[in-house]
Amino acid sequence: MSRTLVICISFVLFININFAYSYDDEDVKHFLKNSECNECDLSNYNFENSYLDQAIINNSNLTNTNFNNAKMANSQIKNSDFTNSTFIKTDMPTTKIENSIFRNVNFEEVNLTSSTISDSNFVKANFNLGKMYGVIIKSSILDEAIITNVNIQKATLSSSSFINVNFNKSLLSLSLMDSTNLSSSNLAQSKARGVNFSNSNLEFADLSYASFRRSVFLKSNMKNVKYKGANFYKSVFTGADMSTIMSENIHFKKSILCKTKMKDVIINRDCRN
């Protein structure tokens, strides 16, 4: 092996080792003792199974960090970066998250019950099988996130972006999803009874075989939506744009379709209001 090759390999190993241990030791000790992190670097550290309830995290770097199975209930997170971190089975109900980045984070089976999220980035985050009952999400970006098989009932998902999000088989009943961009999202087979979708964009969304009984779609954009087998019993579509409906077996029984754009619509006769 040449001297040049040995030097190159040694340099690569040096870079990888330094990347893997980029956290600050003093910051880690302080955080584990006090559950407090202000302007600190905890990136790449392993906090798996740690007890961190009521943690306070501000203006900090926690990228590529492992919080799997950690206890973080009632925590406060603000202005921090958790890109590529993992929160698998993490218990963090009633947590408050503001202006933070959780891009490409794995939240599988996480407990975020009654938590509040605002002005944050969760692009490509994975919440599969998570608990998000009563969660409040406002002015945030969750594009391309995975929210499958999740209990997200009685939640508030307002003024946020959920473009191309997968909600397949999730429970969304009695939630508020107004003024939200859900274009190209997959809500197939979801349970969304009594949900308010007013002023939302659902263009190109897949609503196949989902239940939207008693839901509200006031002034919503529903063009190019897949409706096959969807149930809209007693739902309200006043002012909605459904001008491109061509699906079969849509159930609109007792729904309100006043001032709804429905050009070239095909609806089963027994489904008319």
User: β content, as a range?
Assistant: 5-15%
Largest sheet: 7 strands, parallel
Q: What do we call the CATH homologous superfamily of the largest domain?
A: E3 ubiquitin-protein ligase SopA
Q: What is the rounded Rg?
A: 23 Å
Regarding quaternary structure, what we see is single chain
- Total count of domains: 2
Strand order, main sheet: write it out.
Answer: 1-2-3-4-5-6-7
What's the number of helices?
A: 2
So, CATH architecture of the largest domain? 3 Solenoid
Approximate helicity band: 10-25%
If you had to describe this structure to a student in words, what would you say it looks like?
By secondary structure, this protein is largely without helices or strands. It has 2 domains: 116 residues, E3 ubiquitin-protein ligase SopA (Pectate Lyase C-like); 127 residues, E3 ubiquitin-protein ligase SopA (Pectate Lyase C-like). It is 10% helix and 8% strand. Strands 1-2-3-4-5-6-7 form a 7-stranded parallel beta sheet. The N terminus and C terminus are likely disordered.
